[in-house]
Amino acid sequence: MKVHTYEKAFLVAGAAVLIVCMAALAYAAVALGIQLPGRVAEVDPRRLATTAPFDHPGVRQTGPASYAAVVVGRVWSFDPPTIVVPRDADVTFVGTSADVLHGFHVGDTRVNVMLIPGQVTRVTHRFHEPGEYLLLCHEYCGLGHHTMAGKVVVR
Ligand code: CUA
Question: Which atom of ligand 1 is nearest to the CA of 102?
């Protein structure tokens, strides 16, 4: 069987790309410790009303310059709809969903995650500029998806 020169070159290039990508994946997982969320952050979506911290959504201070903003997404709103946090502090958004998959994007920031029923999502951000930031659901979650918004107020 004769393999054309170009065909052979493409096969070698394809295999090389695969090897490089697998090596990058292994490096990220082993050396950098980047992992998918584990079972440590699971929550029963049917029992949010009686499960801390989701039984009391809202902002609480967790340190001298750190805050936790607990958020529950449900069709089609965020609870609480307005999150007030101070500037120049570490704000950790702790979120989950009570029903279906929702998006959680804070405008003009890199906070862009999913609220997943059964999983706890954590993302930390430090706001430097005071103002109002639009909070949007960016995952289609049903008829009222386009109305699902809130805001983050930085003081
Ligand atoms: Cu919630 Cu789209």
Answer: 1
Q: Side chain identity at 52, as an amino acid letter?
A: A
**How many residues are given for the chain?**
155
Distance of CA 111 to the CA centre of its chain: 7
Of ligand 1's atoms, which has the minimum distance to the CA of residue 73? 1
Which sign, positive or negative, has the C-alpha torsion 147, 113, 97, 130? negative
pTM: 0.77
Rounded CA separation 95/116 (Å): 8
Beta bridge partners of 42: 119
Q: Strands 90-97 and 149-154, how do they pair?
A: unpaired
Binned average pLDDT, 10 residues per bin, the chain of 155 residues: 87 97 94 74 91 94 96 96 96 96 96 94 94 97 96 96
Q: How far apart are CA 94 and CA 124, in angstroms?
A: 9
Region at 13 (left for phi over 0; alpha for psi -120 to 50; beta for the rest): alpha
Question: Cα separations (Å) of 2 from 8, 10, 13, 16, 80?
Answer: 10, 15, 19, 22, 67
Nearest CA to ligand 1 atom 1: 102
